[in-house]
Amino acid sequence: MSVKIAVAGKGGVGKTTLSAALVRALAGIGERVLAVDADPNNCLGRALAFPEEALESITPLSEMKEMLAERAGKAEGGGFFALNPPIEDLLDEYRIQREGISLLVMGTVDEPGAGCVCPESAVLKALVRHLVSLEDLSLVMDMEAGLEHLGRGTARDVGALLIVTEPTVSSARTAARVARLAEGLGLRLPGVVVNKAASPEAKAKVEQYLDGLNVFAVLPADEAVAVSEVVPAEGPYVAAVEELRVRLSQWLAAEEG
Ligand SMILES: Nc1ncnc2c1ncn2[C@@H]1O[C@H](COP(=O)(O)OP(=O)(O)OP(=O)(O)O)[C@@H](O)[C@H]1O
Ligand SMILES: [Mg+2]
């Protein structure tokens, strides 16, 4: 069964690393996987070891204003745009691929401030909805840190959100805040992923600040992960993410009944 998940959490907690490792884990069991980088930093491709030249040549979709405006059908100076813009071909046109993994660099999708109806965001949201509807494709979306941008339209369309935290009070509090926001948006929450756990106490420490949120998985602090931009091929972190992948598939299957 394909997996569709977005990853959020405070800055630097390990969202991109987890997204990349999950993408690898899914590809490892033969899934077709699309990695969606919805963070303006454009780091997901690097974590997945896409060649630097390929990454440098990518313009995030969100910056292709002309293309987006054209798709939205908004005539220059006009005030109207299509609510169902044509987006089916964008995936094939703009993704790059490597070893069964596709990467689509979307950039920041949502404008700050609720209720943005700019054509760019309408097209990108339509694209995410389309991608999520593709049944034989797994999708992992690396979201940016800022809660204000949690991706009102986009994360909601993905449907399930993993929230990453470190074993720190501030990132756990942020996780709890993100969870409240996400619940308000109708997102399903498998739970919180405690990352960079250096001891068995990390989980209990974080739980105190999670407002009763469920801890879905604990991922170890792993020196090999810390020192490399590319997610390593094996080791304690990768093994824990593989367990997380299994549990996530089961959780999503149960949710979908
Ligand atoms: N389990 C881990 N063990 C050790 N280091 C880790 C672990 N997970 C992530 N890191 C390291 O933490 C740093 C931040 O990770 P990452 O870039 O994935 O975070 P992020 O949440 O995507 O950050 P940003 O908010 O800037 O996008 C990186 O240097 C990464 O290698
Ligand atoms: Mg990141």
Written account of the structure:
With 257 residues, the chain is of the alpha/beta class. It has helices at residues 15-28, 44-47, 52-56, 65-71, 90-94, 119-133, 152-158, 169-184, 202-207, 223-226, 236-256, and strands spanning 4-9, 33-38, 96-98, 101-105, 138-143, 160-165, 188-197, 215-220. Strands 3-4-2-5-1-6-7-8 form an 8-stranded mixed sheet, sandwiched between helices. It starts with a strand and ends with a helix. The mean pLDDT is 88. Adenosine-5'-triphosphate (ATP) binds next to helix 1, strand 7 and helix 10.
Compute the number of helices: 11
Mean pLDDT score: 88
Number of domains: 1
Unreliable spans are none
Strand content: 15-25%
Record the strand order, biggest sheet. Answer: 3-4-2-5-1-6-7-8
Distance, first to last CA: 13 Å
At CATH level 2, the architecture is 3-Layer(aba) Sandwich
What is the CATH topology classification name? Rossmann fold
Compressed to H and E, one letter per element, the order equals EHEHHHHEEHEHEHEHEHH
How many whole angstroms does the radius of gyration measure?
18 Å
